[in-house]
Amino acid sequence: MKTKMLVLPMTLALAALPAFAQTQAASTTMANDLPPQDKEFVQAASMSGSTEIDAAKLATKQSQDKDVKNFAHHMMVDHTKLTLELKMAAPHGVAVPRDNSDTTVLDSLKGLKGKEFDTAYIKSVGVEGHQKAVEAFQKEAESGQNADLKKAAAKALPTIQEHLKMAQALAAKKGVQ
């Protein structure tokens, strides 16, 4: 009798397994088939965040300006959080690149120090980088196909827009055009 009682639940569990496996496979397949716009957003958002973090690390070493260092620290903290939120919003099976910084931007900053670094950092990373990020996040928030990514973009957009305003204010304060 005990054997029959154990066999029945096991049989039911095994019968349900193929359906569960099909559901898991379908969701992974669907995630791998993100629409092109959502794939572009994941790539652009991760590149933007990674570049911000790496450039901010450079700024803490190569800038002598307190305002630039404070801005960089703020960017490092916020973009680390935003990167984590993007990874959590990405569908199962979609890889969010971990370190895909824009090497062109970083290489242009590496040899610079002091005021020369500050000017290039504020212009290329602070202002131009955030302008591109605002465009990418706004596009995804308005017309993204994946609901989770669309929601994550909409949630992050005010932060990215605030970063752009901070960068523009810093540029004005430091005379960067």
UniProtKB/TrEMBL annotation:
Signal sequence region: 1-21
Pfam families: DUF4142
Transmembrane regions: none
Gene3D superfamilies (UniProt xref): 1.20.1260.10
Key words of the record: Signal
Domain DUF4142: 37-170
Protein name: Membrane protein
